[in-house]
Amino acid sequence: MLLLRRMFSSAFPRAGGRAPEEVRVLDVRRVTKVTKGGKVLGFTALVVSGNLSGCVGYGYGKALDVPSAVQKALEQSRRTRIFLEQPADVSQATARQTITHAVKAEHCETIVELRPARVNSGIRANRNITAIAQVAGIQDISAKVHGSTNKLNVIKAAFDALKLLETPQDVALRRGVAVFHSDSSSS
C-alpha cells in the first residue's frame, strides 16, 4: 500500500489555512481495451483520503499512466468526502477513538458490518476498511465483510455504513428526548 502525504487547502482548513491530508493508494491495476486497431493499455487506481479527524473520501481513477490515474482518483476522493460527526460531549468513553454504534450496510453482493471496539483494542478489519479507518482518524474499530470482497464494493459498502452513523444527540433529537449523562462520580 502506497502512502502519500499532501497538503491541501480546499476542505476543512486550519488556522494556518491548510489542513493535512492522508492518502492511501489501495489498488493500481493495468487494464487493456481491445479495439479494431489493437490493444490500448491503461491503468486504474483506487484511493482513500482523509484528514485524520473524521473527514474521509474515496476515488477511482482511470488513465493511460499510473500518476494520472492516481491524481484523478485523488481528485474524486476529495469530491466524495463525508464528515463523521463525533458526540458533542467529549467526556463520553471512546468518543474520539471509535464509532458510536454498530452499523451494517451492503453494496451489490458485499455486506459490511462495522462495530465499535474497546479503547486501545486497535483496528480489526479488512485491509480496505483498515485504510478508511486510519485516514478518518478512527483508532479502535471492529469490522466484518460478508459476501464479495471486491475492493471497490467493500469501500462503497463501508462508506454506506459510515453514512448511517448517528451521534447520541441526533438520536435524542429524532426521538424528542434529552440526552442523559450518568455521572459516575456521584453515587
TrEMBL record:
Q: Where is the S5 DRBM domain?
A: 21-84
The protein's matches in PROSITE patterns, at most eight in alphabetical order, are given as:
S5_DSRBD
Q: Which Gene3D superfamilies match?
A: 3.30.160.20, 3.30.230.10
Pfam families tied to this protein: Ribosomal_S5, Ribosomal_S5_C
Q: Which UniProt keywords apply?
A: Ribonucleoprotein, Ribosomal protein
Sequence intervals crossing the membrane: none
GO terms in the biological process aspect are: translation
A molecular-function term among this protein's GO annotations: structural constituent of ribosome
| An annotated GO cellular component | cytoplasm
Q: Which family does it belong to?
A: Belongs to the universal ribosomal protein uS5 family.
This chain belongs to the protein called: Mitochondrial ribosomal protein S5 (US5m)
State the organism of origin.
Andalucia godoyi
